[in-house]
Amino acid sequence: MQKAIIWPPYLLPILSRKTRGRPLVYLDSAATTQKPYEVISAVSDFYAEHNANTRRGIHELSEEATELYEKTRDIVKNFLRAKHREEIIFTSGTTEGLNLLAFGLAGELGRGDEILLTEAEHHSNIVPWQIVAKERHLKIKFAPVKADGRLDLNAYKKLLNRRTKIVSITHASNVTGAITPLDKLVPAAHKIGALIIVDAAQSVAHLPLNVQKLDCDFLVFSGHKLYGPTGVGVLYGKKRLLEKLTPRRYGGQMIEQVKKNKTTLAELPARLEGGTMPIAEIVGLGEAINFLRNFGWQKIKTHDQGLCEYGLKRLSTIPDLRLLGPTDFKNRLPIFSFTISGIPAHDLATLLDEAGIAVRAGHHCAEVLHTALHVLVSARASCALYTSRADIDALIERLLEIKAIFHG
Amino acid sequence: MDNHAVYREELLEHYRHPQNFGRMKKADQQAHISNPLCGDEITLQLKFDRSGQVAEVKFEGRGCALSIAAASVFTEFLKDRSKKQLQNIPNGKIEKLLDIKVSPARKKCVQLPYAALRKIFLKQ
Prior knowledge:
The structure holds two protein chains of two kinds. Helix content of chain A is 38%, strand content 17%. Chain A contains 13 helices and 17 strands. The radius of gyration of chain A is 22 Å and the shape is globular. Chain B contains five helices and three strands. A three-stranded antiparallel β-sheet of chain B has the order 1-2-3, covered by helices on one side.
């Protein structure tokens, strides 16, 4: 039996508030996680104590700000087990990371080249490729998912061919929670000479990442799904590939020298970090990673598996409920998307909200996946480290009430 | 919990047994409108009599309980009204008819039938 993680209210201030007059049951962590006090205070301390622009000022504050900023790069480097610190590029989030990759790699792609995605991708990992594909006359292919939402590995391998130049794939689905077996996907992509990009937006707070062991070429994630602030994310890339990547934002510290007719760009990592970055948020991200590391992956894994097992068991007792995604608790994250026949997802979400339970309704920016699973929209309850079995109990109890309300 | 301010039994009855649900063969005016974000869609059809009043109204579509109930009460409201009256219906009328207050995220659901009516008059 898994031991519940105890959260004193001061550690996660927002969880002690009420919504709709009821104690908050926050089950929307796949959209964004709530922030621990350490992260909130790291951001406000930065503004209260160290605020200055980085790298430019010849004054003590600027030195401090730069030091905190670059220290976070080291924290991220160690967190991802990257080889070099300049392989860590700060972005505004996963979406910016994927856009930077799609448009930054476009120059090396030409007519007939193929991009391989999966049906489980978030819109942020589909749309930039569609735009680039149209401009460069590329072909996009989708590796299918099986009925339980897991990737069809055989189909994936069959779709790889010598025209495949880029494989961009999610590490874990934001709808089904299914974890992608990257250890099988990466070598297969490399075998035919394709680059592989990993969207770790959902997995980053749940699974240990080791980019050297994974051998992925690029990996992106957002800070706000990792207990950190919004507006900040990370792009990891192998150094030799980042050196060739075309920047998307020109100006500011990414410049080395500007003449009227010629500009030289700075070295990595500054080269890909144009303009003033969200410095306070980046400092907050470093604190969020420290917060996560203090738990240790073993504890996180036990917690997540316990929630998966319990959540699946309890949800399976609700009549007419269809769960999207794997029903075995292994190799999945505690994300539960479901439909209940006769009760539209948006009505479910509104009625849950009336009881203070926050979930998401819609296609969760994964319309292709919903189509593949033959549903229009779903309701989604998603968990984090602060989610307890009591939260799941509250969800189940309310779902039963809603069924009674709806079916009169 | 007794907070069914929105999902009252009366509203749910409209969802379960919507008024004017169906399709007429020959409508004078019709419009289809959808909200891809939540998958709601509705086709609103109107037939006018010689004096220009609504003689028949139908709607067809799929959606959440709010949008279906909204279409049910709204189509009832449209009956026997003149074209001019239809054009002057204010935004927010459906919420008044249903006597509910919805959160910003759900406004689109409730207003979908109204949006379909607007679309008919924009086409003219």
